[in-house]
Structures
1.
Amino acid sequence: MSPASPPPRYRHVGLTLIELVVVLTVLAALAGLVVPLISRQAADARVSTTQASLRQIRDVILNRYLVDNPRSMIVITEDPDPTVITITLAGQSQDVWAPTRIRSLFTQSPRAAAYNPSVRLGWNGPYLVRTGARYPGTTEATARGFIADEYAHPDDPVLLDGWGNPLVVRPIEDPNDGNHWAIISAGPDGNLNTTNDNLRVYLHPIELAP
């Protein structure tokens, strides 16, 4: 009989503690690089989405709503809103024609002229698709600058920015180009009162009432 064969030797295929520590260290380093990159991309996406929405509203107002509803026939007010609004900019009061409220792009005002196909004038909306979002009326939202005024009412249909806050129309002073109406996003902090991070597009120019 041949002598018994030695038992087979099995190669160790597991990780040693040192190898495991090295692998975890590498993974942690990669995570430290990837997570900030993803965060920046998400932030950039919110900015891009907001800028696209601002441009969309601006283009709808200038190229569709105001074409159908020229100033001479617009009655965009709903009681008790005034047709002409007095605003104070740079310490001076002036009367200006209010631009369309964002809600007027969704719903015809009772005082707006109905569309007349023979002259191709009148409210011919809705000019934007409803998203289900509404202008807030809470105390917390008011503290962040989303006040109920002649420009927006609680429960008005709105479009939201990339951070989930309503886009608003407001008169604003442009130090480089006079006074204008602007469509504004509150920006990443969601606060209209802090203007350093607001995103906006302008409706040029502001039109003084006769």
2.
Amino acid sequence: MTEPQDRTAETMGRAAAAAGGRARFGAYVALAAPGRREAWRPVAMIGLILLTQMLMLVLATAFAAHLLGAPPSQAGGAQGARAQLLIALVCLAATPFALAAGLRALHGRRLSSLYGPARRLEPRGLLFGAACAALLTGIGLAAATQLDLATLSWSRAPAAGAAVLIVVFLLIPLQAAGEELLFRGYLLQEIARRSRLALFWAAAPSALFAALHIDAAAPLDEAISYALWSFLFGLAAAAIVWRSGALSIVIGLHVANNWIALLLFEPAQGVAGLGPIEVRLTPGGAAATLALNAVLLAGLYGIVALALRRREARA
């Protein structure tokens, strides 16, 4: 095949992939079409989710205070930090259950309508997303240390007990899946069926996702960097949903990312983890770290798009 023919074939392949992405995304958004459309219903859904999380916060905090003999915020040390982490995970783990109830009551549809046209989570997509998370974590840490953007060291905090690790391990899938079901599932569908502009269905949920990941206790540059990384992660996840027409890959990605971050590492940003390895950013390196993460997220989408294109070619 000559060079012009090669370029023509490549252009046609990209056009077919884009058309396939639009078709899959259209089918994904169409899953929300039978639901009731009134503008107050998404607002009521958010209220229901917040109410459920606040209820779980009160119950979990009271239970933790009973075990610790003091409110977790006043307990201090590793024990207090771990109690607060568990409370946060318990609250967020309630999201899928609140979504399921709200979808039934407010929209007359099932939680499975957020998964994709197959109405189920695909094991292959979950595993592929998890593998991508592990690959990018390894590449990102290697690059950050080589570029003197971060340092790795063994944690000096006392190791968490097996019971805490098991509970966190079991809560993370509910927490991470709940965030994807809400931000890249429910909100994306509800906005996209009203407007097909990516500025709205991709950027708006990602901005809300980022706002909820602002770490007020961190230095200002790190807090801004972490919030912007969360926004970029949301955009990348939305792009993957656009390309795949389902949530399986992004749920697998998010769950594995949080397992790695909280069970293997003590992250430099965000919620304190339980892992034996501390990751600390180099002072003044937040902006460069954000740029590195942006490159990694772009690479993530490229890997997913390539894998889906090859799967389509074999089909």
